[in-house]
Amino acid sequence: MNISLRTLTPKDPEAVLHQAALLLVEGFRDMAPEFCPDLPSAREELAEGLKAERICRGAFDGGGLLLGWVGGIPQYEGRTFELHPIVVRREFWGQGVGSLLVKDLEEQAAQRGGCVVFLGTDDEMDKTSLSRVDLFHNTWEHIKRIKNYRRHPYEFYQKQGYAIVGVLPDANGPGKPDIFMAKRIRPEPVKGDEKP
Ligand SMILES: CC(C)(COP(=O)(O)OP(=O)(O)OC[C@H]1O[C@@H](n2cnc3c(N)ncnc32)[C@H](O)[C@@H]1OP(=O)(O)O)[C@@H](O)C(=O)NCCC(=O)NCCS
Question: pTM of this prediction?
Answer without folding.
Answer: 0.95
